[in-house]
Prior knowledge:
Radius of gyration: 19 Å
Distance between the termini: 40 Å
Number of helices: 8
Helix content: 55-70%
Shape: elongated
Order of helices and strands: HHHHHHHH
Largest sheet: none
Strand content: under 5%
Number of strands: 0
Amino acid sequence: MPPKPKSEQQRQEMRGAILDAARELFVExxxxxxxxxxxxxxxxxxxxxxxxxxxxxxxxxxxxxDTDFLSLARELQASEQIPDPIERLHLLGxxxxxxxxxxxxxxxxxxxxxxxxxxxxxxxxxxxxxxxxAYAHLLHMVTEAHAAGLFRSALDNPDxxxxxxxxxxxxxCAL
Length: 175
């Protein structure tokens, strides 16, 4: 068993190793069938060492989802610098696909793996904050483009437009 990390950097590296191992196992076998002991074994630590970082399996899952959702939101922030709303939407879509292709286990865990339920009050991310919530970012951009009259007049609901775009992007990535 490796020695207990001493520095903050070593603690963060261990936390990252735990999250990576958990993500891989959850995607491979499903969230419900993976134990904390199996995660520890994957990285060569004792189960006790994992509990120094995460209270329980649900806390680990919340941290993993928060980390990965924040990574996706940050990937999409690059499109914010583009002044043309339609080009911003285009780059946001490319960023979404790039995230899914570059981080397939992150994507599968977030969108294609059954999760243990937890409520929004148990996350550290702000739902609806475009800087932390990728869907809120898309909705914000669609709302701006819609207000500028850049969609056909028959497309009169920014929520439906955003949901359709999100579903289309997810469909492409999932396939």
